[in-house]
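So, could you explain this one?
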Amino acid sequence: MSGPDRTTAPTARTSQEISMSTRISPPPTAGPTGSAAEFFAGTAFDARPARACHSLVRRMPEGLTADRVTGLLTAAQEAGALPADLRLWVEDVVTAAADPASEALRAREGSRTVGHGARLRMVLLSYADGVADLVLVAHRRAVDSAGLDLVGRILSGAADDAARLAGPGEPTRHNAVDAAPPAWGLGDARRAGATGVVRIGPVEVAPEPVTPVLIAATALVLSRYADRGRTVGLLTADRAGRDRFAAVSLPVDENTPVTDLVQQAERAIASATPVGADQPVPAVGIVELSGQDEAYRPFLELPFPVTFTWEPRRDGFLGGRLEYDETVLHPEVAEQLARHVGRLAALIGAKPDDTRILLGADVELIAEEERAALLDLGRSRPAPARAATTAQPATTLHAATTPHTATTLHTVHSAFTRLAAERPGATALSDADRELTYAQLDEAATRMSAALGERGVGPGDFVGVCLDRDTDLVVTLLAVLKTGAAYVPMDPRYPVERLRYTTEDAGLRLVVTTLGEFPVIDGVTAVHPSALAGSTAAAPEPADDPDAPAYVIYTSGSTGKPKGVVVPHRNVGALMAATTRDMRLGPDDVWTLFHSSSFDFSVWEIWGCLLTGGHLVVVPYWVSRSPEEFHALLLQRRVTVLSQTPSAFASLRDVHLNQQESLALRLVVFGGEPLDVRSLELWFRREPHDRCRLVNMFGITETTVHVTTQTVTPVEVAAGSRSVGTALPGWTLSVRDDRGRVQPLGVPGEIYVGGAGVADRYLNRPELTAERFVDDPLTGERVYRSGDLGRLRPGGRLDHLGRIDDQVKVRGFRIELGEVRSVLLDDPTVSAGAVVLNQGDGDAAGVRLDAYVVLRPSGSLTEVRRRLREVLPEHMVPATLTAVSEIPLTVNGKVDAAKLPKPDQLPAVEADAEAAVMTEAEAPAEQESLADVVLRAWRATLGPEVEPDDDFFELGGNSLLAVRLSAALRREGLPPVPLRDLYLQPTAALLVQHLTARQSAEAGAEQS
């Protein structure tokens, strides 16, 4: 099989075309269901008629002059063998037939599409050496391959006197549209007009019938490509009979014996769907030729974006080629597809006798050599060198350039101690009230570790840490590590029962917390960090064991019970060594600790900063909830490295775009949830990508925060890329099917992660550990089965496609929620969105999709809903569409579906969602008081019956409605109101007093 040859689509020429009043067609013969003429009568071929045209070049017998050919045409017309209005064009060529110029002319004439109203063009090329070629081009509505052959035989004097072309009339027109292209094709929209060719074979196939073998092989490959329901077009071009078309659907059950598949294909061909308005033009099709010579072209432009052409060879083998549209197939995917179809056609065509050979268990799509190449593609490559703009750190966790070399690893705390000794006076950590140098942080953590040691904490223990974000949190985490124990972070805002469960499940004996209402549990001591700060005892000196657990972070579980992930020090060291050089992390950087310590993103923020010499700025909880305050903090502290979930960054982006001051950011790292790169378009208009680098990183708690890295530029935004990049150095990636087999390029499957980041285990979950952390028989390494859906691209980049369990079922249809959300975000008037499954009252008939959107000022729910219906099939259109001012986030910065209000509980939401938005007619008059303005915003959020002294929370207010109220106040022209002010002033009257006092204070400050 050769590599792909790339060409461009031929250009149509309209001169020298003939118009026919009578449709030419050969007599009907037996074949696949549906005539080719009927199929090509679809309007899908009107704009590009070359898709429905074919051509034949016939070398004329020696001595047959142009006058003689013209005479044969006239005689055939007089006898009724050919229509009377056919015209033969004769062109005298000044070069010999074998001359390159003649060959080019012959190819050009055979590529010229017949125009509108024309059906057949006949050109006789008469060369200088006395040789002549007859070039015939026809539209398949009028003339099929047998008809072209007949016209060629008539004009060359070789036809039977009784041969004639019938004209049964114009085929019925239909409005069939092109089917959706395959998602696995990885085509490039920028390659419009370009096509490629891959040769297949020769393939040995047992004697007739050949057609079911080709259908079976193609359907089986599509099934393995997770495209099981795709219809395959089958076009037979037979000079001995009539061309036929069939739209064949052959679902493949992998428990089927190979011997049965061909029989199933025969039945599928016989029952193929009739051509008509409800039958789209297939994206994948087979053109089967029966003995045509090389001078016959079955199409001038691809009839299907992915077109397989097969024809018998003189040696008895089957020869094939795959021709494809490069907007639909990437060239490497095309080579792969051709290889796989050829491989399976040979296997199925051998017609094995053993009925025990099953499609799923015994038929390997990918050969061993190809599998090894795919596995190698998922291994990390050295990061490209980048021009340094900041100083490199004085030290890192590794001395070697290979970050996954185990002998160079240290524990997190020992690496920090070494760095603190080198940079004792440099600022390491600060919050709103306190600042610590590296030496002071090391000393404070050492004193606390001694106090913990006095309380019996030592190597192998787990210590709970339930603290809000401040310097005490970081000191405590480091102190726990210095004892040789591992920390178990818990967010103080978690429900009490969640805190109780984590404490009991982890077997904690000691929890460091400021939470007065921390649950009382037998055998568990809750201690305030201040009680551990003054110890004068000698600090313990645990062994520098990189294999010891560093932390246990609890993640959500499919059973509803959180599960603890045990991560060793070694993994954190590998993460830093894999990223430090590429991201130029160093002592000139200022980071933020934005996320809860119970979210593994905090591991990256804390140790990514403190192990590369940077300054870590702790972001208070309320500031992290307010994009305006957080933006001000970024400006004030001159933050250079920022880590954000895409949901949180969206709000920050909107604030920044309305500010004039420039941020000091040079690096933004996205993680925690999928990034829709289209949300970054406006950011790049303000912040050039070569000034502030945006990096999308796919990661999992079980694989130590990050797995891949992808720099996002305007190129990725324009392409709507879903790539999360290539594996970090020391990490490995592969995409597998449900049997653990490696998936081909572009084909979705479960993401397997191996290498330096794989965690130890799930705490107290041996069965789950054995299920998810497995020894891979293909590589021999320990890998984590992520449960995430992805596909591998040429070059080793990974597309993240969401969770496998994000697939839901509504009225029997399987739906990916991420796909519906993606369509929502395609709408330019939608800035954020979420889609959730509503189970109703438990009755399957009541299951539905609920969608929530944050509309831009020009947005309207009516228009959004209309666009949804234009793009999505009916069963995928959400049953409800609700406008909210902001999508609620969890403490980890992800979409909090539990806090999305039920659509029927939202106040003042009308069908067009404009009730909550003030119209110009309702705009406040200048004489309106502040109390009137605030109360109107309050009522727009909570309902028209709200009075000035009604308590926000007693009316059912929550954090989401608080965000909505804040947005409503901004729409009224009031300055930003921090969310904590709304919590402290829970009535409209109290908020008016607060705003009045603030305005007076600001006015007094200006005067002074």
User: Anything to note?
Assistant: DSSP finds 27 helices and 38 strands in the chain. The radius of gyration is 35 Å.
